[in-house]
# Entry
Amino acid sequence: MTRPVLIIGAGIAGLWAALKMAPREVVLLTGAPLGHGAASGWAQGGVSAALADNDSPALHARDTMMAGAGLVEADAAHALAEGAAAEVRALAAIGAPFERNGSDWSLSREAAHSAHRVARVKGDGAGAAIMATLIEAVRASQHIIVRDGWKAVHLLEGETGCAGALAEGPNGEAETIFAEETVLAMGGAGGLFALTTTPAGAQGQAMAMAARLGAQIQDPEFVQFHPTALNADLDPAPLCTEALRGEGAVLIDKTGERFMKPVHELAELAPRDVVARAVHRQNARGLGAFLDCREAIGEAFPDRFPAVFSACQRAGIDPRVQPIPVAPTAHYHMGGVKTDIDGRTNVGGLWAIGECASSGLHGANRLASNSLAEGLVAAARCAEAMSKGGRRDLPPPHRKLGTSSASGGGKLPHLALQRLRQAMSRHCGVERSASGLGELIELINALEASHGPADALVAARFIVTAALRRTESRGGHFRTDYPATADNAAHTVCTLADLDQPSTEAARHSVPAE
# Structure
């Protein structure tokens, strides 16, 4: 009997992969009910693709590599740029309502792009509209079995690699799902931070689960902080899309003066890490940071950017006549489970796509709106590669695989999780230092002693350990004690065993367990 393909996660990457797998039987675990809990649905900007006559995949790849601060892999950048337009067209063909100007695409320009290339839906509604289209298609597909509200708890070990997963249902029931191939499409790690624009449930579980099978983790220290989240004590923090700055909105301090012009020649359209640090420093100094859309958007705000307008209204702000208070918040994880450009990991039968994967596409700093594009292109490439079989180019796990469940993990209690999230935002946020990261390691040790190796703690340990060991500043990783960028760019590649090796730089702090 042929086993199905198991896809864990139902954001854009997971849904698109499930559709592309036809006619193979697919079991899709959604974690939350389908359409809920996926960061894809919250994406505002759109899908980056070379769709305009004055654009090209080569330019898109070039911009991706320039934004990534020396760590973008050229093959990954070109794979994305050369595949994105076809996937956007395929999405449009099944009903995704991208904006058009007659026969032309209506495209936005976002930070660090050299052209207008972001296909959008109703200004800031791309993610939700694309998700709705994909959900309808998945529900209508005969080869996809949707397990609403089921989540993977552990991956299963087989003689040659991953054999599926142990899953937990919405009422706590458990089921072992054996699979020919398993695809992780579980999203990122923003839920490890107190200030985040992502679903709180995204806590880097894919890294923890894959690492227990011997998978390599790449560049976990690189977390992207979106520079302009609504700073109004909401959790998660509503995103003020980069498209606003692309349309001419400017960043001002509390006196009304623009502060990005002296920081970077591209001002508000500088790479995200540059803008995020500038906004962070403005707020830290008490000068304030506000996104002023009054002139650029004005009265058209409710119609052109309804999601942002609604969030502002909930916070008692009218962006048509008031500047929006903003702060940088954890938004996207550039690191994750190491893969090739088709999503293969170094564990047989285990694939990873979307935000939980690290193919080297984003390097140290993701180019705006490459996330949805990556989800689509990686899903399509994964499905095609899986249909062809073929060799795996990544090295084998560092340990022999058995025939049991790669157990461990579990959930961190609420109060412990909140303690971790607060500390991650404080010490592993926009700006980092050895002393703060050392405190975080000690906190993780204390929490693990009390609660065991929960997935959130393993994922946080990957991020913090790698951040402590990278003694330079690059892209989304900025060390106040090592502000210079090293001459040679090098990826971080680590396994679960590497976390047991103490860093010589770790500060010694005592943090009591709960």
